[in-house]
Amino acid sequence: MSERAETVYDAAGSTLIVRIRGEVDHHTAAEIRTGIDRELFQRRPKRMTMDLSRVSFMDSSGLGLIMGRFSVMRELGGEMTVSDPSPETLSILTLAGMERLVKIEYTREPPARSKPTPAGTKPSPDGTPSGKGRTRRKCKPSA
Amino acid sequence: MKTKQEKPEVLNRMQIKFPALSVNEGMARSVAAVFISQLDPSVTELADIKCAVSEAVTNCIVHAYRDTTGYITLTVTLLAGRIVRIEVKDKGCGIRDIRQARQPLFTTDTGGERSGMGFTVMESFTDSLRVLSKPGKGTTVTMTRRLSDRGRF
Ligand SMILES: Nc1ncnc2c1ncn2[C@@H]1O[C@H](COP(=O)(O)OP(=O)(O)OP(=O)(O)O)[C@@H](O)[C@H]1O
Ligand SMILES: [Mg+2]
After folding, report:
1. Which CATH superfamily includes the segment(s) A5-105?
2. Are A55 and A23 in contact (CB under 8 A)?
3. A122: CB partners within 8 A, 6+ apart
């Protein structure tokens, strides 16, 4: 129904990788949420990784989506991480202090010109990417 | 209300009015971005503004017209000095306590997976945010952002 966002699932051992592609807003979040929760309750993975490398837009509805999935994973006794946030998602994740709730990890190159944040460590207090001079760059495909 | 203060010259303006349907969230921010593009904003500036517009429009759909339907008016004004002014107006339920509503993490929609970060995003991604609201009458959110010169001469 919504051509603006797409979700693809990959299993890697006991980890479910959820790759979201496109625009995450209030309109698309509903469908993304239903899809992810269906997978989660069916597969009951130990770990869920939400890959945001191909998200071209995200507003606070995306924050709600992440926080909600975090709760579901906790309910299922598993844990959740966010991986490779695109430049379009990184600024709002940082603004919300999302790294205090979920681990943000980089499995490939971090977005252009923003400070790399090693998985599991907190960025410096003023590590907010001001975005000045930031350039749009597609993440290189892995492999 | 009226002041003698000099107002920046209006260079261009566009206005759209659309029903409060979630499918219009993407349309509204895209239309705003296309209009603003004539000022050649940076990629980041455009991304910030799109996000701020999305927050304001989504609030009309999720909150203002929660139990009703109605229209949203989006006005984008380009002012001298590379200033972009965005106004998002609804005639919905209004906000009783604006100060509280603007607090980070505050939301009245606790069952709907909302983060309560919408106003914080609007405030952070623009230079100024003004919220006017009357319970039962509606809400008008006005944001401005000055675009950088980026080596313009
Ligand atoms: N246009 C509006 N009309 C009526 N109430 C509003 C409007 N905009 C915001 N509000 C009220 O202000 C609160 C805070 O808004 P804000 O956008 O910051 O968070 P949210 O919409 O609840 O969550 P999020 O934006 O993170 O999804 C809302 O929960 C709602 O009660
Ligand atoms: Mg909101």
Report:
1. STAS domain (3.30.750.24)
2. yes
3. A99, A100
Q: Helices B118-125 and B43-59 sit at what angle, rounded to 10 degrees?
A: 150
**What pTM was estimated for this model as a whole?**
0.87
Cα angle at A105 between A57 and A91, to 5 degrees? 35
Q: List residues bridging with A79 in a β-sheet.
A: A47
Who among A26, A33, A135 is closest to B25 (CB)? A26
Q: What is the 3-state secondary structure (H, E, C) of chain B?
A: CCCCCCCCCEEEEEEEEEECCCCHHHHHHHHHHHHHHHHCCCHHHHHHHHHHHHHHHHHHHHHHCCCCCCEEEEEEEEECCCEEEEEEEECCCCCCCHHHHHCCCCCCCCCCCCCCCHHHHHHHHCCEEEEEEECCCEEEEEEEEECCCCCCC
- Return d(Cα A53, Cα A56) in angstroms, integer: 8
Residues of chain A whose C-beta is under 8 A from some C-beta in B? 4, 23, 25-27, 29, 33, 57-61, 63-65, 67-68, 87-88, 91-92, 95-96, 131-136
Q: Where are the domains of chain A?
A: 5-105
Look at the block and give the residue holding tokens 């490398």: A53
Question: pLDDT per residue over B100-125, tens digit each?
Answer: 999 999 999 988 899 999 999 999 99
Interval A54-102: pLDDT, tens: 999 999 999 999 999 999 999 999 999 999 999 999 999 999 999 999 9
One-letter amino acid identity for B75?
T
- List CB contacts (< 8 A) between B148 and chain A: 132
Task: For each of the domains in chain B, give its residue range(s) and CATH number, in order of start.
Answer: 11-146 (3.30.565.10)
